[in-house]
Task: inverse folding
């Protein structure tokens, strides 16, 4: 750890000694292009190349004004502040740099905005499907590996290496997802991770997960590159589905191109010796916390091979914000999931969120803050608590509700924890914008946590798809994929069977699934499609009743309908009188079981099988 950190620091300190002798040149401009007609006229270009910072710059293009050239510690960088006025037309801009008799010219494109969908957002009407592209489906075996990349490996028999899944394969499976009732697809990051294998706990592992960016403006070519990502988004939109992009602001891979030649020492959070984050959220909201504890949480590195970006540096902040806007405009993604949200500088996050929302008012933003209580969770979203800092993040991944549902089912099947978590929703401004889930790529798979108890599996999924929020399901849950993170997280990131040519089983098809897997698939499909087609279930108001003796009842209702969800968490069937629920049931005389399509003619007493959640559409 210390050796890696010392090399990065030494690189920064020595830069001026060796860079000055090189002939000036421009090798990169980020953002790689921009668009006319954006709401924000200001833009800051990062210009990089040998001694690029020693050039005197000019831009001669109608509607584009070079306001200021900023130079920094490393003479290989210049940051150009531009203003692009509303009268500017699409075309090729010439960026000219001069030094004495030498002139360097770099072309840079200003594009027209198109009318394709972008920034549509996700809402409670959506059902998100989370997948790891490398582990979902392989549509183009020719891009499985590249000899000129730092990790040239590909081996499906090794859970720590890349397996070859890609965006073309995912695009081929869009009909499967649509049939399941999915309305939005969320991939773990698709941006280039040109990282070597890293030693994690004595095992050499690939960055197939995508969380170690090495070039923000390139989608990893092992996934198909920029063109494949744009094609996937277009195909998803054509199928009536949305796309969530996974963003990482906190850190980058240690082989990112600008880590090889840092613009300045303050580009990263630097420490006298390597310092890891404590992974503790308490110092941030603790009114009695020390400055050093807060600093370690926020500025400590997530792991040694993911350098921690300093978002208080205005150049870093501009780079990240502009890349976020570029991604939405270039690819047309609809929502923005933010990795390791709580470790970011929060004033920066407010600025970034505001910039995205100003350009795309409908976009949804939800971050990952892995906390275990509502106070800490509320801190990172729009809330009703008198914190000194006020977050403007619209939504979040609801770790508190996940823990409540999973732990309640795991230990005694009790819905009490879920009830209590929802009962504290008053701390949030809009809990309906939270993304709910039962597991993900970092957690044990839900079915295995339930001890392979299929009844508990169905109860959990019923809660997920009927309570407030935007439900998200981890790939393979619908076909009973399972495993615990024992010994490693590779166990919960297995390939989806049938996603690769020649797979012995194809569980994307009913013929390839077992009877039990088909039953589970149909269970999810029935509930997800009903939810999609009935606004009362995804957007209606929520009313819940105190659990009693293992029985838990809540309603989703609006002026057009009412759905009752009744859970019997005990191991015996019960007959439940309904007089207690008259506030929501008066006037209804019968019901239809959404999951079985059976008619219920007597609403005075409901028969609830053991370990079952029943979803009833009430009828007058």
Result:
């Amino acid at each position: 750890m210390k050796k890696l950190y010392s090399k990065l620091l030494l690189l920064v300190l020595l830069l001026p000694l060796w860079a000055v002798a090189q002939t000036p040149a421009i090798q990169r401009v980020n953002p790689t292009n921009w668009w006319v007609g954006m709401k924000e006229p200001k833009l800051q270009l990062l210009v990089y190349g040998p001694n690029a910072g020693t050039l005197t710059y000019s831009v001669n293009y109608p509607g584009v004004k070079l306001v200021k050239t900023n130079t920094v510690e490393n003479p290989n960088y210049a940051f150009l502040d531009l203003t692009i006025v509303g009268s500017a037309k699409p075309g090729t801009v010439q960026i000219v740099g001069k030094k004495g008799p030498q002139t360097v010219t770099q072309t840079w494109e200003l594009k027209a905005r198109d009318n394709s969908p972008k920034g549509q957002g996700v809402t409670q009407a959506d059902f998100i499907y989370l997948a790891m592209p490398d582990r979902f489906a392989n549509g183009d075996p020719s891009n499985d590996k590249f000899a000129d990349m730092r990790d040239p490996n590909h081996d499906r028999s090794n859970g720590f290496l890349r397996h070859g899944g890609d965006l073309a394969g995912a695009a081929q499976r869009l009909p499967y997802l649509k049939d399941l009732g999915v309305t939005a697809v969320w991939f773990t990051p698709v941006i280039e991770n040109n990282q070597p294998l890293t030693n994690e706990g004595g095992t050499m592992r690939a960055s197939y997960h995508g969380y170690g960016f090495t070039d923000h403006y390139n989608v990893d070519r092992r996934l198909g590159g920029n063109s494949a990502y744009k094609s996937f988004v277009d195909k998803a939109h054509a199928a009536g589905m949305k796309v969530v992009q996974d963003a990482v602001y906190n850190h980058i891979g240690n082989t990112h191109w600008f880590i090889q030649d840092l613009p300045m020492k303050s580009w990263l959070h630097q420490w006298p010796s390597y310092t890891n984050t404590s992974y503790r959220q308490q110092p941030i909201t603790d009114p009695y916390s020390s400055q050093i504890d807060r600093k370690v949480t926020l500025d400590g590195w997530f792991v040694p091979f993911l350098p921690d970006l300093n978002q208080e540096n205005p150049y870093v902040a501009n780079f990240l914000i502009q890349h976020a806007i570029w991604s939405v405009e270039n690819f047309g993604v609809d929502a923005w999931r933010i990795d390791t949200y709580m470790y970011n500088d929060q004033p920066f996050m407010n600025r970034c969120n505001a910039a995205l929302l100003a350009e795309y008012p409908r976009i949804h933003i939800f971050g990952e803050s892995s906390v275990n209580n509502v106070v800490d969770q509320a801190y990172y979203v729009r809330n009703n608590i008198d914190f000194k800092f006020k977050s403007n993040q619209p939504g979040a991944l609801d770790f508190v509700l996940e823990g409540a549902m999973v732990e309640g089912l795991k230990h005694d099947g009790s819905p009490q924890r879920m009830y209590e978590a929802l009962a504290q929703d008053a701390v949030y401004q809009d809990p309906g914008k939270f993304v709910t889930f039962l597991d993900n790529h970092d957690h044990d798979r839900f079915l295995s946590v339930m001890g392979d108890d299929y009844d508990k599996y169905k109860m959990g999924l019923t809660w997920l798809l009927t309570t407030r929020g935007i439900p998200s399901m981890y790939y393979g849950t619908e076909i009973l994929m399972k495993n615990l993170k024992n010994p490693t997280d590779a166990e919960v990131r297995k390939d989806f069977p049938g996603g690769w040519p020649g797979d012995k089983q194809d569980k994307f098809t009913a013929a390839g699934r077992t009877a039990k897997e088909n039953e589970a698939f149909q269970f999810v499909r029935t509930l997800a499609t009903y939810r999609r087609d009935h606004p009362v279930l995804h957007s209606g108001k929520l009313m819940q009743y105190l659990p009693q003796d293992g029985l838990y009842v809540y309603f989703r209702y609006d002026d057009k309908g009412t759905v009752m969800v009744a859970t019997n968490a005990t191991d015996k069937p019960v007959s439940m009188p309904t007089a207690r629920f008259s506030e929501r049931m008066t006037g209804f005389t019968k019901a239809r079981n959404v999951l079985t399509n059976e008619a219920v003619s007597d609403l005075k007493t409901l028969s609830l099988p053991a370990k079952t959640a029943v979803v009833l559409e009430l009828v007058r």
Observations:
- The domain at 128-538 is CATH 3.20.20.80 (TIM Barrel).
- The chain has three domains: 2-111, 128-538, 541-619.
